[in-house]
Amino acid sequence: MNPRNKVWLFDLDDTLHNASHRAFPELNASMAAYMVTYLGLTEEAAAALRNHYWQRYGATLTGLQRHHGVKPAHFLRETHRLPGLEAHLHGHAHDLAALRRLPGRKLLMTNAPRSYAERVLAAIGLRDVFERLICVEDMELFGHSRPKPDTRMFRVVLARLKLRPERCVLVEDTLIHQKAARSLGLHTVWMQRWLRKAADGRRLQHRPAYVSRRVRSLVALARFPNG
């Protein structure tokens, strides 16, 4: 494949920047607080339920909408305010420069809301790099939020953008998302610069068969096979 015909689908958090350092802890706390306020849960129950829905559906919002009737727009607006977020965001200078040089089309595909994605990209200097942002608001089917790793959503997004799966490479830190993408014929790259442990504390060392390549920097993407 000509490198310029490749379509890169980049995740955002813990792929383009270190979300585990500050953004994720604040987001997790904000989501738990939302569940305490609007579902009447204790802090402990909210934290446990948030984690359960993330493990089961790949996104807390999916579980809240499906089982509690939570409105996505309200949830996203209330949980992603995160005042002062930009001051704590950072990527890696060599990675970000390599991303700009990478041949092919570049799209962002994130389970985060558009307002958050735009804030992060502006803060780390990548606002003008991506041809298109595919955010959680764009991942809705039949009135329900269907973020990654929903395979139906992947199919719809690819069809909507007229993308052939075999030309696409999903660059992600989350394995369950890569497994879904690979089942549809996309190539997959597992980014491990910042996330080295699973949610249960296990170290992430073994590369599953559905992962085409494991990398610890965006610089390494330039060496991704062109076949």
Automatic annotation (TrEMBL):
Coiled coil: none annotated. It comes from the Bacteria. InterPro entries: HAD-like_sf (IPR036412), HAD-SF_hydro_IA (IPR006439), HAD_sf (IPR023214), Pyr-5-nucltdase (IPR010237). Pfam families: Hydrolase. PANTHER family: HALOACID DEHALOGENASE-LIKE HYDROLASE (PTHR12725:SF117). This is Pyrimidine 5'-nucleotidase. The lineage of its organism: Bacteria, Pseudomonadati, Pseudomonadota, Betaproteobacteria, Burkholderiales.
